[in-house]
Amino acid sequence: MSNPTPTLPGRYACIDCGTNSVKLIVADLAEDSAEPVFQLSETTRIGEGMQANAMHLQEEPMRRTLEAIVNFAAAARDNDALETVLIGTAALRDAHISADFVRRVQERCGLMLEIITGQEEARLSFLAVREDPYWRDIPQLLVIDIGGGSTELIQGEAGTDRIQARTSVNLGAVKLTEAFLRSDPPAAEQIAAANRAAAAAFDAAGLLIRMDQEFKVVGVGGTLTNLGAMKLASALDPEALHGMTLRVPEIEGLRTLLAQRSVEERRMLPGLDPRRADIILAGAMLLLHALAHIQSDRVGICTRGLRWGVLYDRFLSHIGKS
Fold first, then answer.
1. Rounded mean pLDDT, 72-91
2. Which residue, 158, 267, 286, 299, could crosslink 277 as a Cys pair with Cβ 3.0–4.6 Å?
3. Within-domain flag for 253
């Protein structure tokens, strides 16, 4: 991703087109601060139905996602963003053909959709945590990023924004749900099969993390924020969740609760965003497998994920010079 010379302080925007949702952040950036101005999120599921259709994007999910992108681009302009960056992640990477969707986006809103690699996504997710004031002074960080289509484990070099090791697992909350958790609520054998698949995927990815080093584990993404809100039994509040810790027994308890509920019953659970009710169980399962993989009993929550990393990378001149 390019890093042009920015005009700081300034107001910039990023739209993140993920497998499950489209998210917008508009923020005021300066060399030593980043303040959110406006945020939006809409569940559009662009990856819906891909696995059953030879990894082809489906028309209705594309239509939903395109409308969200057009609306979010307008919102960025309305909030006086000097520039808006639009990125796409796992579903668009995995799609058999995505060029048509990229063309439609540019025709409708004038933005070029950048489909970033898994390696670039990992780097930017790590950067979002490393540059955050809450963790900026932590010597050693390991970031877990659970998306709709993939899960990333990223360990940084001590005290820098560079990546030391990365493990990528081609399973996310949407992908695991569609492949295995098809009943409502899921049958015991489906949960067992999903756990076997997740365990096998992490085993196949290998343990690249340096276990001889002490590190702070921090998670980004909707799975983490929703589990944190469920722990608090209150509506999603980024300020209350940012920096909060989830421990493995707490996650296991939430996973058990979710497995026993239908999607409709989950929608009534305090703290859980109803739009995530169908995939939150898979997200909790993947989080537990990720923590087991790195032998950690807890994870911190960062509510500033990938799109913040994009803003830092694109518009802060000191990034990459540490």
1. 96
2. 267
3. yes
